[in-house]
Each structure stands twice: as structure tokens, then as C-alpha cells.
Amino acid sequence: MHRVKLRDxxxxxxxxxxxxxxEEVLAVIDAVAEAPxxxxxxxxxxxxxxxxxxxxxxxxxxxxxxxxAARPDGVWA
Length: 77
Fold this sequence. Notes:
- By secondary structure, the protein is an alpha+beta fold.
- The protein is built from two helices and four strands.
- The protein has one domain (3-68): YaeB-like fold (2-Layer Sandwich), CATH 3.30.2310.
- It has helices at 8-16, 19-34, and strands spanning 3-6, 43-46, 50-57, 60-68.
- It has a four-stranded mixed sheet.
- The longest helix has 16 residues, at 19-34.
- The chain is elongated, with a radius of gyration of 12 Å.
């Protein structure tokens, strides 16, 4: 189990994502937390339509920024 800390910018993005966007971003965070190569100063990971920038130290994943792609009409992908 990992502890996740969201920076203000990342938390603001999560506030506007639809439910399935939350699920995808959280899945990407989980994958980063489990990847030994993410144990560096900073890691970037991509899902189908989302991305996460974070740092991992011990059991703490600090999410620095995240997002999800939107279609040209402004609807979340």
C-alpha cells in the first residue's frame, strides 16, 4: 500500500475530471508506485488518455501534476 500526496495543481485537475478519468489517473499512479524504475527523482507515466508526473520515495507517491486529454470539442476523451 502506498500513500499518495497530491500537490495543489494535481488536486485541482482531479476536481474537474469525470469519474472514469479519476479511475484512469489512479490506475496510472498505482502502476508508477509499483514500478521499481520509478524510484527516481521524477517519473512520468501515461495511460490511454491520461498522464501523471510524480516522484516516488519509499511508500509515498507525490503527484506533482496530472491530466487527461480532451477532444477538440472540449469533451473529455
